[in-house]
Amino acid sequence: MKLADDDFTLFGLPERFALDRPALDARWRELQAVAHPDRFAHEGAAAQRIAMQWAVRLNEAYARLKDPLRRAAYLCERRGAAIDAERNTAMPAEFLAQQMHWREALDEAVDTSDPEAAVQRLDDEVAAAERALLARVARQLDDEGDAATAAAGVRALMFLNRFRQEVERRLELLESGRT
Known about the structure:
Blueprint: H1 7-11, H2 21-35, H3 45-66, H4 68-78, H5 93-109, H6 115-142, H7 147-175
């Protein structure tokens, strides 16, 4: 293993979106047990620095691989399809119309007889759309080898992720009695 290895090589996993999460977790624990800086406490500053670099590298790779959205983005990037979400915000008209509909529904939920239930229904609907889009991105990456189309899906998932955070904040406010 080398620090410069890609995340999949580092963990000994095939470079695919679909992965065995328990295997990833177990491998992370194994690697951390070997590379944890505490194991090198008595071996001098240089060994401790190297162990710290390994621990940081392993934690970064683990965080990226365990998160489906980050894993999809990483695979797109590795396959030459940059996500570039900061500059590439173009979305299909249908997706943008759906976003506007959901945002209006979120704003209108406050005026319903049961705003908490209305926001929860919206969250459930958006979560279902998010799961369906993630499944489509997974197929595009693993079965179709279409990283460019998957990258557009990842950008859409980023929008959905941010919107779901807004919905969750609204739910928290409603639950606490502050609308």
